[in-house]
Amino acid sequence: MYHTQSISQLSSHQSISQPSLVVVGGSRVACLTVATVMFLVFNFQQFRHGPAVHSDECIFQRHPPSTAIFILYGLAVPVLAAFGLCTNFINAVVFMRPKMTPSAFSYLAALSWLDCVSCTLITLTALSRSFFYDIPSWIGYDYQWQVPLFSISTGAANLILACVSLDRFLYLYRFKANNGAPKFCRRKVARYMIFVVIIISIAVNMPYFFVFYVDPITGVCHVTEFYYSTFYQIHNWFTFTLLAICPAIFLLIGNTAIILAFRRWTKQGKACRQACSNANAQTTNKRYQHQMKLTISIVIVITLYMIGELPAHMTSRKSSLNLLFGGDADKVNTQLMEKLEVICITLNALQLSMNIVVYAVINPSFMPEFFVCLRGASDVCFSLCCIPAIRRSWHRCWSRRRQEPRAEERVVSSITPQPLPADEPHQCGCESWSSDSECQNGKHCRAIVGTFAFVDDEEQEPQQPHRDPEIFTTKASGCVQLKEPPTDETAPDEDSLFHSSFIMIN
Question: Which of 130, 377, 399, 471 could bond 73 through an S-S bridge, CB–CB 3.0 to 4.6 Å?
Fold first, then answer.
């Protein structure tokens, strides 16, 4: 409903041609009409002769795979799907970054998450058809769960591509420099459309949960009566029209309209850059280059999705009986369908893994944010591997080793230094061994207070202004202490006195 309203609003504009909008707006009605006519043509014999009697066993039974099919299912498809799972997860994380503000990035983020689900289902399906082809539990997954879940993810992705195509067209056609982006091209509207699209896809594909069931002992697949009913045939055509034909036609017309609007937009951009001042010219140029590359990447992604999705939808076991063979089980060639199915699923896995190449090569906003996310992911991986703790332990041990003394330092530090004599006053009254101040013993010689200098004679020539300092030896500079205290009978000799040398500067 919102698509039709937006397109009808565009039809009032003068610059776009009216027939193209009529085709876009009425594409869904036309496709439903074509689907109804094709359904009546293919089922004319059934309406004429009455319903046929069918067995409850599914015509698409599991068989041992050949060598080529085993290599494709066991090696090629899982590798491509696993690579697509990793790349689409990176795409989703990058497109959800705060700097990815345009609404188109919200659609691309949702598309990447849905592609992650599709790649996971494709990987499990390939393993169930190669290594575990004879295990009943894996067979039950392939028939009962893979079919409806894969239909939900791919159907929602097709509708999201139609929304992003409409978003780009409206942005390029109705963008104004003063008013900004149109109301439809807002992130809030994009999130609302994504929610509605997913609900529609779940509701439409819900009947596929009640079609197949597998015997848990023998692994033989059976179908319910609903599989051969008229309502199921109508539902197949309606689902194929709504989730495949309508988005395909809408995307074809939308891509053409995007290219035409983009040419008009680039002309306006050149005129705007010429009218802008030199200060704003560079910013405006970067802005237009960004939108141009974003639009080109979206067009390429849409084209790749159509190539990989339409054949996979037609060859699926849930709808190929009615879409390709008109509901007649006798016309089904199981060997041919098995080969077509493996080709289509390989092509689909390849298409899902190619999106990151388109984003990285064309989209200018993708690579900077990609490297930021890659750096954050590497930090998380390093943390999980305990590498930072190992680095901290290594630095701690290295710093501790550097702080330990060397062998020479340990030898020097092991020698205990001799304590200096205590600088205490003696009994005689001397303040210390180097000073005889207030000494009461007259036998101690006292230092002459003054400046000592050597003078040759009085006849020294006065014209010599400066003389070099000389070194002399004296008995003591202060209190002359004795090694042993003298007695009254003996007088201190010269050997018992301390000697010290001084440098006297004249």
Answer: 130
- Compute the distance between CA of residue 248 and CA of residue 303 in angstroms, rounded to an integer: 9
Residue 359: count other Cβ atoms within 10 Å of its Cβ: 26
Residue 407 has a CB neighbour count (10 Å cut-off) of 7
Which distant-in-sequence residues (6+ apart) come within 8 Å of 435 by Cβ?
478, 479
- Number of C-beta neighbours around residue 66 at 10 A: 13
Confidence at residue 198, expressed as pLDDT on a 0 to 100 scale = 92
Mind listing the domains of the chain with CATH numbers? 16-384 (1.20.1070.10), 426-454+466-506 (no CATH)
Contact 139, 219 (CB under 8 A): yes
State the pTM of this model: 0.60
Rounded CA separation 393/385 (Å): 14
The single-letter code of the amino acid at 504 is: M
Q: Report how far residue 453's alpha carbon sits from residue 283's, in angstroms, rounded to the nearest whole number.
A: 87
Query: What distance in Å separates the CA atoms of residue 6 and residue 52, rounded to the nearest whole number?
Result: 46
Work out the pLDDT band at 14, boundaries 50, 70, 90. very low
The mean pLDDT value for 205-212 works out to: 87
Other C-beta atoms within 10 Å of 32: how many?
Answer: 16
In angstroms, the CA 72 to CA 303 distance is 24
